[in-house]
Each structure stands twice: as C-alpha cells, then as structure tokens.
Amino acid sequence: MPVCPALPARLACVCLLASTLTVTAAQAQEFTIDLDIPTLQVAEYHRPYIALWIARPDNSVAANLAVWYDTKLADMEGTKWLKDMRQWWRRTGRTLAMPADGISGATRPQGQHSVDFSDKVSSLPAGDYNLFVEAVREVGGREMLEIPFSWPPKDRTSLTVQGEHELGEIGLTLAP
C-alpha cells in the first residue's frame, strides 16, 4: 500500500527507504564514555556520587548526561548530598527535580563502566564543548575532570584524561 495515494507504490517504497536510511545515518554518531571508579584502600568506603554533563565554552550546560547517586535511601534522602557535587550543582543540578527521568541512576561500584550517550547528544548543534565528570564520596574526596571535544566528530576519536583519587581514567570515544 503506498504511503501517499498520489504516488505509485514503487516510488513510495523508494521514498520510505531513503528516509529510513537518512534517519539511520543521522543516529549513527557515537558518544561513549568509559569511566574507571578506582578501588580505594580506606577504612570506610562509600560509592561516589557522579555527575556527567556537557558544557559550552561559556560553561553553560548543553546537556545533562547522568547523575549517579544513592537512590535507595528512604524518603529520597540521597538527593540531600547532590549539592556536594559543587560544580554540577551550581551549573545545573539545583534546577533539576530529582530523580530526573533518563538522567538519574544508582551509584556504580568500583571498576570499569562504559556508557553510550549517543542518543542524548544527537541533537547537539555543531560546535566546541567540554565533557565534565564530577565525583564526590562520603568520608572521601572530590574530583572533577574535563575533556574538550568538537561535535559532530569528523573522524573516530578517543580522548582520555586521568583522575588522581576519586576517578581513574575517563575516556571519551566519538565517531561520525
């Protein structure tokens, strides 16, 4: 059955196929973050709260990617300590109602984590940006790392930055 009655069936199929390929190509851009939460030898270990966001060169927030915090505490008490991620909180966190759909999630254990945010950045306008990763841990420290990048990517690119205490290596993989 043709999509449009005015078009012959064969032409309608070609148009439908072409629009499907265009959408698939636009969605093929990759934006993956590899995040290492190091194993710390401390007497009292708590999983870190972590915020990941993209900022424009003027530091305004272009996209919130994820906020990992203790979502299991009674009466949403875990949100009480979100403000300890100071930079994220000042730039965007205090304006969000938590939990925020598609952004909020539980804290992650020590180890390697890979998260694909391709769908969240697909509508970013072309330009220069900074990826920020901020971590804070109860009875622990605070750390924020930054990776500058350009969007959309022209070639497959892998960018990394090394944390010192609360975060290990953070990698950003971009691909057209």
Specify the helix fraction band: 10-25%
Mean pLDDT across the residues is: 86
Q: What's the β-strand tally?
A: 9
Main pleated-sheet profile? 5 strands, mixed
What's the Cα radius of gyration? Answer: 20 Å
Percent of residues in β-strands: 35-45%
What order do the helices and strands follow? HEEEHEEHEEEE
Outline:
globular
SS class: alpha+beta
Which key features would you list for this structure?
single chain; 176 residues; alpha+beta; 3 helices; 9 strands
What would you say this structure looks like, in words?
The chain has 176 residues and is of the alpha+beta class. Helix content is 16%, strand content 38%. The chain has three helices and nine strands. A five-stranded mixed beta sheet has the order 4-3-2-6-7. A four-stranded antiparallel beta sheet has the order 5-1-9-8. The chain is globular and about 45 Å long. Mean pLDDT is 86; it is low at 11-26.
Quick description:
With 176 residues, the protein is an alpha+beta fold.
Explain the layout of strands and helices.
Layout: H1 9-26, E1 30-37, E2 49-55, E3 61-69, H2 86-91, E4 104-106, E5 111-116, H3 118-121, E6 127-136, E7 142-151, E8 157-162, E9 169-175
